[in-house]
Design goal:
199 residues, mainly alpha, Tetracycline Repressor, domain 2, 9 helices, 77% helix, elongated
Amino acid sequence: MHNERKQALLDASVAYLLEHGVADLSLRPLAAAIDTSARLLIFHFGSKEQLLADVLGEVQARLQRSFEALAAAPADGTSPMRRFWDWATSRRNLPYLRLLYEVHFIALQNPTAYARYLAQSSLDWVELIAKQLPLTLRSSGVATLCGAVFDGLLIELLGSGDRRRTTAALDVFVAMLRREHAAALAQSAPPPARRKKAP
C-alpha cells in the first residue's frame, strides 16, 4: 500500500512538473496541486531534493522505455536518427525532454544538486544511440556527436518553435553520416581480384 501511494504521488508530481517546470519548485504548491500535504511528500520521499531526483529518474525511465520500443520496431527505411527526432518532437515526448533540458541548464548554476543525475543520464543516452549506429560508425565519439547535434537542434526548436528549419538541419547531418558510412565501407572492402592472363 505504501509503495502504491508513493508511486501515485510520484506520477502526480511528474505531471505537475511537466506543466510547471522545476525552476521555482516548492513543496507546498506542489502538494496542494496533487491533493496531498508537504508533510506526506517528505514522509514518502525524504526531502524535496530526493523527490525531484525521483521525478527526474521516472521521466528518464519513461523516455528510455519509449525509445527502446521505437528502436525495436521494424525499420521503415527512415534513418534511425530521423526516427529518433520524429519521436522526440512528438506531442507526447517533447514535454518530457523540455523538462530534462530545463534541469540541464539549472545544473550549470547548481551542479551539486544535479551533477550525478545528469552525468548518468548522459551516459545512458550515449549507449542507446551507439547501439543504433552502423558498425562502421559505432563509437562513443560518434554517439556523443549525434547526441550533441540532437541536443542543439532540440534546444533551437524549443526556443524558436521552428520545426521545419530544425528538421531540415537534422536531415543535413544525417546525410553527412551516410556519406561517412559509405566511405568507411569503401575503405574496408577488399580490392577486386585481378584476372589472370591466359597462357
